[in-house]
Task: structure prediction
Amino acid sequence: MIALFALAAAAAAPAPTGCADPQTQQAINACAAADYQAADAEMNRQWAQISAQMKDRDKAGDAKRDRRPGYFQAALAAQRAWLSFRTLQCRAEGYAMRGGSAEPMMVSSCLAGVTRERTRQLRVMGLAFQQ
Result:
């Protein structure tokens, strides 16, 4: 939990300078947190696009042919499950440095990488629905 609080505090701070060559663990942690925030912002932009596409599909009435959830509800359920996965996965990866000053960096680095992969997945899904 301490790592998540440190991550939240770093996220609230302005983007650090000197991330090309951080010299202290605190600076490394702050740069990793900023990297994650950038990845999360990009994923949120992609999510806005895919959710709009799914809502448009729902308006078209395609999902009314069967009793399954609509396009948006299915995408939202998947995104919520993914968010839980991301949090738990990166907490577990952070335990490699459990209690140490590098734990926040481990968590942030994991969050950034997993989030970038999710952004790619959402982009691919959006392309499939444009066809």
